[in-house]
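Hallway conversation turned thread

IA: we were arguing at lunch whether anyone had actually written out Methylthioribose-1-phosphate isomerase end to end. Turns out nobody had. So, for the record, here is the sequence (358 residues) and right after it the structure tokens. Reply here if something looks off.
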Amino acid sequence: MTTSNPKSVEAIIWRDGRLLLLDQRILPEQEVYLTYDSAEGVAGAIKDMVVRGAPAIGISAAYGVVLAARACFAADGDQWKTTIADKIQVLADSRPTAVNLFWALDNMQKAINHLSDQNDPEAVLLVEAIRIHESDIAANRTMGEFGAEIIAQSNDAGRSVMTHCNTGALATGGVGTALGVIRTAFEKGYIDHVHADETRPWFQGSRLTAWELMREGIPVSLNVEGAAAHVMRTQDISWVIVGADRITANGDVANKIGTYNLAVLAMHHGVRFMVVAPTSTIDMSLACGEDIVIEERDPEEVVCYKGLRVAPEGVEVFNPVFDVTPADLIDVIVTEKGIVERPDAEKMRALMSKDRLH
Ligand code: MRU
């Protein structure tokens, strides 16, 4: 399976019955694919951030279910539909915030429900996992076009944009969500420069986004997060463009910690704020952002970097890795089904309505 841009990296590859994940913990120094042949292994890879980014987590988990089905059918025969439940739960427990994980597992469970107990499930479940993977690639392309068109229409051609975390090929099945819009807008000549927030504590912006953009020859400057207000004031930024891990029924957006800061700053500086996410990131079962479980990770991520201590021994740490941007700070949400300007509950309902033609 390939993305539309040959220079774009592939984070997730299914080959010869096994899952290959590009180890994002050691980029940009080393490009190493790790191989997985069990659901438990895939769950560990998600937890440890070998693979990260909401859509990429969902796609990987879908392939994890294929591996689980193979193991359960081999070990338990016609009891496989019962025994696979524990393995699916292990995948579900890997990370809590990105709803794409649970969306993908739900889709795989529906496919399981349609299967008989007696027949080998692997081939049919693989078709469903590939469908999930391919639909993300297609969604990336569509969102790229929609988002670029918004930039073109807002008379911002030739100006810079700012982004946060990594939302590119590494975080998705295709060319990316926010970074997909940035790529498309750059190809069409609508933007000429990207400002990337380094994104503490895991450095997705510096290690991953800057790397992806430089590989493609898209001009990028890296800034520490504390510089964001100054960048907005001095660098002719037209849009902040970010991805999402979960969008609730009222249009609130959970994304990488620091996104909310940027939205507040953007409002003050008259910079517009765009969220780009496939509808697999929208969770209509939650009323608002306060209902989202925000993952907190190991304090070591904050006090140490590559074994070097950057804080005193014993310091107390609060390490939430996502925050919630309220809908009223968002100018537009771009999905593959269409765009929602100034999101609210009514507009989100209309977007997600089964009656919508798309
Ligand atoms: O902790 P991570 O690296 O998985 O967080 C990723 C993000 O917050 C991304 O912005 C989000 O998943 C959207 S990616 C298309």
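OS: looked through it. The domain at 12-135 is CATH 1.20.120.420 (Four Helix Bundle (Hemerythrin (Met), subunit A)).
IA: good, adding that to the notes. Residues 241 and 351 are 20 Å apart (CA to CA).
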